[in-house]
From TrEMBL:
One of its GO terms (molecular function) is RNA methyltransferase activity. This is SAM-dependent MTase RsmB/NOP-type domain-containing protein. Keywords: Methyltransferase, RNA-binding, S-adenosyl-L-methionine, Transferase. It comes from Sphingorhabdus lutea. GO terms for biological process: regulation of DNA-templated transcription; RNA methylation. Residues 144-440 form the SAM-dependent MTase RsmB/NOP-type domain. Belongs to the class I-like SAM-binding methyltransferase superfamily. RsmB/NOP family.
Length: 444
């Protein structure tokens, strides 16, 4: 009988994903593989929107639920999970109430349907609303307030209300003008793509990416502008070093699904791309195939890999909390805590130190994380420099990058801190941290 209720498959998958994230502590990105793979594309997309919007407004949704129940429902009770997603559909996605109520009650078969129906009904009668911008989870909000100040937290809250725009990275930066014009033809009149950096195009939100011109031809790939910065720093440092270094032996570590690998290949380096995950490495290969570029792909744990030679430059895009991607992954900052940060920071230090021996004298290591936590950024560079007297912090000319330095100027020993409210007037960007070090030329 349940199968006959339209839209139930998407809601069932959304509930399973929320349960995996909020009760079992999994990442939505991982949970999604298990629960949406059997759905048709439109149900899969709907399940993802419900899960993401529920997580984005979780604190405000819980406050509405708690305002209607005599006893506070337990955090991981099924009825709370179902109510959470019901309110996201009603008050954010503006799904018609009958569709929300019928599917929600079906999910609660044999459970407290009357309670759920009562809560939804009384919130609808009271014309309840969610705030325009979601309340930030307290752990992240307090930590960011201390590290980056009130403006960053306020702007992050505004950015948190919506999914980010789609950024493209062009294979050939020289095609920027022509590609922008071609892409503009597909948009409604008056809406234009913008470019904030060489080779970068930002599309208006809500574009179906693989239908855009140039996708099949491999002219571009999707990559947040902040995520384009690390490989661009590597390419700029190599280019500044001189003609011979413009194309070098480059090792891309933690490379899949390959956004940065493609930037390095497009700059004509000889690239070895390593990742521990076979599944993600397959996506890297598909991305290279689509863009008609080539890299030597290695599937290995970098800490155990014996195949390293010596390289002109290494890019380490280390595993991290990914708190800088909070807009596209709203589950991350609902769950992040000091223990996660410390565990990943320890792994990053181990990786950064482990690869130092693989760089040629005069060569570079670029260390990057998509995290807003100092432990995974500034502190990593300090630790590396204090333990490696044979390396010096460096940066290329940063004047053409769309980011403002934190204290008025870029200082190599501090690295590059990318805050989400850079280019705020154009919709902001992911949070990131990038540092570059160079092995002293007379060192072996
Ligand atoms: C932030 S993602 C990389 C994104 C990628 N650089 C890009 O631009 O598309 C981190 C990657 O690190 C990989 N990884 C985690 N631990 C690793 C290890 N010990 N050795 C190699 N790769 C690892 C993960 O499989 C994951 O693909």
């Amino acid at each position: 009988m349940e199968k006959q209720i339209s839209g139930l498959a998407a809601r069932t998958a959304a509930l399973q994903m929320l349960d995996a994230v909020l009760r079992r502590g999994e990442h939505l990105d991982q949970a999604r593989h298990a629960y949406i793979k059997k759905l048709n594309p439109s149900d899969a997309a709907m399940a993802m929107v419900i899960a993401n919007e529920t997580l984005r407004y979780l604190i405000d949704i819980d406050a509405l639920i708690d305002s209607q129940t005599r006893n506070i429902l337990s955090e991981d009770a099924k009825v709370r999970m179902v109510l959470r997603m019901s309110l996201a559909q009603l008050f954010i996605m503006e799904t018609p109430p009958h569709a929300v109520i019928s599917t929600s009650l079906a999910l609660l078969q044999g459970g407290p349907r009357k309670l759920a129906h009562g809560v939804i009904g009384s919130l609808l009668r009271a014309e309840a609303q969610l705030p325009d911008t979601p309340t930030m989870p307290p752990f992240a909000a307090l930590k960011w307030l201390k590290d980056w100040g009130p403006q960053m937290v306020e702007d992050s809250r505004i950015l948190f209300a919506t999914a980010p725009s789609v950024d493209l990275c062009l294979k050939d930066a020289g095609h920027l003008e022509k590609m922008s014009e071609t892409l503009a033809q597909d948009l409604i009149e008056g809406v234009k793509p913008i470019s904030l950096m060489a080779g970068h195009i930002r599309m208006p939100r809500g574009q179906a990416v693989d239908a855009l011109p140039g996708f099949d031809e491999g002219e571009w790939w999707v990559q947040d502008i902040a995520a384009q910065i690390p490989a661009r720093i590597l390419n700029d440092l190599m280019a500044q070093k001189g003609k011979d270094a413009q194309s070098g032996d480059v090792l891309d570590l933690c490379a899949a699904p390959g956004g940065k690998t493609m930037q390095l290949c497009a700059a004509k380096h000889r690239v070895t791309a390593l990742d521990v995950s076979e599944r993600r490495a397959r996506r890297l290969q598909q991305n290279l195939d689509r863009t008609a570029m080539d890299a030597n792909i290695v599937i290995h744990n970098l800490l155990k890999w014996k195949g390293a030679q010596s390289y002109d430059a290494i890019l380490l895009d280390a595993p991290c909390t990914a708190s800088g991607t909070f807009r596209r992954h709203p589950d991350i900052i609902q769950k992040i805590d000091d223990r996660d940060i410390a565990k990943l920071a320890a792994l990053q230090s181990e990786m950064f130190a482990h690869i130092a021996k693989w760089v040629r004298p005069g060569g570079f290591i670029i260390f990057a994380t998509c995290s807003l936590e100092r432990e995974e950024g500034e502190d990593q560079l300090q630790k590396f420099l204090s333990e490696h007297g044979d390396f010096t912090a460096v940066l290329p000319d940063m004047s053409a990058y769309p980011i403002a330095p934190i204290n008025g100027e870029f200082i190599p020993e501090k690295g590059v801190r990318v805050l989400p409210n850079n280019a705020m007037e154009h919709g902001g960007m992911d949070g990131f941290y990038v540092a570059a070090v160079q092995k002293n030329a007379n060192m072996k």
